[in-house]
Amino acid sequence: MRLILLLLSLSALGLTAQGLRSPAFVAQLQRPAAAAGSCPADGSPNESQAGTTAFLNINSDAPYAGQLFTTPSAITLCKVRFHLTTLNTGSNITARVYSLSGTTITPASPLGESDVQVSDIGWSLTDVIFTFSTPIALSSATDYAIVLTSNGGVGTGSAVRVHKNGSGTLAGREGGWLSGGTMYDPNAGDCAMALYWY
User: Fold this and answer.
1) pLDDT-based confidence at residue 86 (cuts at 50, 70, 90)
2) Would you give the DSSP letter of residue 48?
3) Would you give the DSSP letter of residue 189?
4) Quick one: DSSP state of residue 105?
5) Which of 150, 164, 147, 171 shows the shortest CA–CA distance to 65?
6) Cα–Cα distance, 112 to 136 (Å, whole number)
7) CATH class, range 47-197
8) N or C: which end of the chain has fewer CB within 10 A?
9) Whole-model pTM?
10) What is the dihedral of CA 43, 48, 52, 57, to 10 degrees?
11) How far apart are alpha carbons 139 and 61 in whole angstroms?
């Protein structure tokens, strides 16, 4: 009885035993899923801003420095590039993305983050790419913060400098954030950085 009901159901759907074995039906089952979006190559960012020798410091009073950014559409952010110098040996630098309350971040609740070993940078102007192992879905026309911090802190004889530019082609503001997440001294310019999304 169950077999009869199954055959009747398949027939109602226009499927017969012969149709289930047809090359067209088998090909449909074997068809791969649509490819997910892919991250642009390192040399092909969606948005970028050149750097100067001016910089923001990451320090114990203001452990976060970076950029406010308004999304042009719904995007999936896969990596960011900053122009850095550092003497902060023996620690990592972490890029984090935050949603905002005004200009305030919640330090313990990033949307995503990526680490780079400081030993890979050095005390010279260096473009450093941070790739998010899980790309971050961002809503359209929404403000976010993209910031850097150092898990080793910044003490005597150490420095992490996030270089910037006076212009604002990323249509954001650069500045620092206090340990509680409040932004201080925002400037109507941009960090020297690039954004990659799909």
Assistant:
1) confident
2) E
3) S
4) -
5) 147
6) 6
7) mainly beta
8) N
9) 0.77
10) -100
11) 31
pLDDT, tens digit, 9 for 90 and up, residues 34-44: 345 899 999 99
- List, in sequence order, the alpha helices (H) in the chain: 2-12, 17-20, 23-30
Q: Spell out the domain ranges in the chain.
A: 47-197
d(Cα 171, Cα 69) in Å, to the nearest integer? 7
Cα separation, 95 vs 84, whole angstroms: 12
Sign of CA dihedral 187, 103, 58, 116: negative
The DSSP symbol for 2 reads: H
By the 8 A CB rule, do 118 and 162 touch? no
Alpha carbons 81 and 95: distance in angstroms, whole number: 9
Q: Look at 91-95, 110-114, 143-147, 180-184 and tell me which has the smallest mean pLDDT.
A: 91-95
